[in-house]
Design brief:
globular; 19 helices; 2 strands; mainly alpha; two-stranded antiparallel ribbon; about 70% helix
């Protein structure tokens, strides 16, 4: 049949083409203005129909909780032209192509798309610390001697325990879900889901602080003033925060190894002013200042004992010295994880402990600052006084750069955690989608949106206490999962295992658990109420997950029943 003719060999008229809804829009129309108007109406209706279908498809993916289906991911990738199965004859070759799509190779790395010890150690370092920025509160709340003791004892009772737990469980369950996988394996899906949800809420709240600090440090560098702040118009401030968050999110989306490479460079820049402070300050030390005890009358409220405001003091230490478990999300990104991953965790603890203690040791001993002077950003004033104003400006710039790395490390961990939860069917399947770089596209988008919304809040002290509260609960669940798995699955293959028996591990973890419970006990009433609201939202989402999975099971049962009737 000649193209453009009907079954009878006649060229269809414009009226007939317009009447046939299956005819493409460009073949309709003609015959006067009325028909042209009808054609425009059809085009509008078809456009609305397209948008409606797109919204419906997105809605289905948002409301569907389904474990990862590699065949579905492969089909979608092949349809988009991302995976080319041409010439792949065996199932092994196709599976390798699918795996390369989920975790694509980076041609710029010697070992493509696999993290090395140093990049991972630095990512963990910035996920936990990022340098001494933010440690000023510990000095203000606890005084010189207690602040230094806190950053000596803290890593021994918090950081080491959490890092070793992560090394064992992360290599045993090398999944993006990290703590979710551990707790689920020990206590079931409900507990695993709640652990992941609380951990993600804490991480997203924590990450909302960094864009604001990044912008504030940048403004201080421009004004060259450490006491006067530069305020922006609220609209301009929100716009700047949003653009900064989106830009950093795009860098994160480009791929995990890129984040690791950036973090190494940023780490050197961020810590460089403190290297200079340590070298120059050693010749100006007054060691007696290290042993100054806080004045019992020198406090501004809170839980005060012996002059220490224990609530802010412990919360600051907890905030600065924890989150090593986030590295469990990256265990699957390393070759020979049983050997390399514990090494990366070891070096990350060394970096964190050294990055706090030695700069504070020199800053306290070489300056004449009083306890009340230690407000946020005061380290820039100390470096300027001890070495020179130029280093003060450099410290402000380094603080701004450090917040970029903090943002990137936290966003990487949070988005991979969401992807891991979606892969297990705990979250909507849309969050399990990978980009061509192997990164969780919608997890990063959701994280950036939450960060921008959180940046509208005013009381950041309350946010810090809230994120600590959420994180403390998820951390306690992980410790409990570790002990439960040691008891219930003693023969489980563990590429790395803490060289202690179960009783030894219980005693080893006890100080960390006790201090974490103390953090919960010192929280304010408002934090308890906020936590209740967070849990309520989490239970609502979990109910939606259960409802969705029940609906999917019903559909599968109906299909099987229909297939059985058809076979008869």
């Amino acid at each position: 049949m000649t193209e453009g003719r009907d079954d009878d060999g006649e060229i269809p008229t414009a009226d007939a083409a317009a009447a046939d809804e299956s005819t493409p829009l460009w073949q309709r129309g003609g015959g006067g203005s009325h028909r042209r108007e009808a054609s425009i109406e059809d085009m509008m209706l078809q456009s609305f129909h397209f948008v409606e279908e797109a919204i419906h498809d997105i809605g289905v993916e948002i409301t569907t909780f389904q474990p990862l289906d590699e065949e579905e991911i492969a089909a979608e990738a092949e349809e988009l032209g991302v995976i080319d199965f041409t010439g792949l004859d065996t199932e092994e070759e196709k599976e390798e192509a699918i795996e390369n799509f989920i975790y694509p190779e980076d041609p710029f790395l010697p070992n493509p798309n696999k993290l090395g010890v140093l990049p991972l150690a630095v990512i963990v370092f910035y996920n936990v610390s990022g340098g001494p920025f933010g440690a000023e509160t510990a000095v203000r709340a606890g005084g010189n001697m207690f602040a230094l003791l806190g950053f000596i004892i803290g890593p021994l009772v918090w950081s080491i325990q959490e890092a070793l737990m992560t090394a064992e469980l992360g290599t045993t369950f090398p999944e993006a879900g990290a703590g979710v996988a551990w707790v689920e394996e020990a206590f079931g899906q409900s507990a695993g889901w709640m652990c992941g949800y609380l951990g993600w809420m804490a991480g997203a709240t924590d990450n909302a602080i960094y864009p604001v600090l990044f912008m504030d440090y940048l403004l201080q560098a421009v004004s060259k003033s450490f006491s006067d702040s530069v305020d922006l118009h609220p609209t301009l401030r929100i716009t700047t925060l949003a653009l900064a968050s989106i830009g950093l999110g795009y860098i994160n989306w480009r791929g995990l190894p890129l984040v690791g490479q950036m973090s190494v460079s940023i780490g050197l820049i961020a810590m460089s002013p403190f290297f200079i402070l340590i070298v120059v300050g050693c010749f100006k030390l007054d060691a007696t200042r290290w042993f100054e005890l806080p004045n019992a009358d020198n406090s501004d409220g809170g839980s005060v004992l012996s002059g220490v405001m224990w609530g802010p003091f412990l919360n600051n230490l907890f905030w600065n010295l924890n989150s090593f478990d986030a590295a469990g999300s990256f265990a699957g990104e390393m070759d020979n994880a049983g050997t390399m991953f514990p090494k990366a965790m070891f070096w990350s603890v060394i970096l964190v402990a050294s990055g706090y203690f030695f700069p504070l040791l020199i800053a306290i001993g070489a300056s004449s600052a009083q306890r009340d002077d230690w407000n946020d950003g005061f380290l820039a004033v100390v470096t300027g006084d001890v070495v020179g104003p130029w280093l003060g400006v450099w410290t402000v710039a380094a603080a701004a750069v450090s917040n970029i790395a903090l943002f990137q490390a936290e966003l990487s961990a949070d988005s991979f955690q969401l992807m891991g939860m979606a892969d297990r069917g705990h979250l909507p399947k849309i969050l399990s989608k990978r980009s061509r770089h192997g990164t969780p596209t919608y997890g990063i988008i959701l994280g950036v949106v939450v960060i921008v919304l959180m940046d509208l809040a005013n009381d950041f002290d309350q946010l810090i206490e809230m994120l600590n509260f959420n994180y403390a609960f998820s951390l306690l669940m992980e410790y409990a999962a570790f002990i439960k798995l040691r008891i219930s699955q003693p023969d489980l293959v563990r590429p790395y295992k803490i060289p202690m028996n179960t009783l030894g591990c219980i005693l080893f973890f006890s100080p960390s658990v006790i201090l974490t419970i103390l953090i919960l006990a010192l929280a304010e009433n408002a934090t308890y109420l906020m936590f209740a609201g967070v849990v309520a939202v989490g239970l609502l989402i979990f109910w939606g997950k259960q409802h969705s999975q029940h609906h999917l099971q019903q559909q599968e049962a109906e299909k099987e029943e229909e297939a059985g009737e058809a076979a008869k």
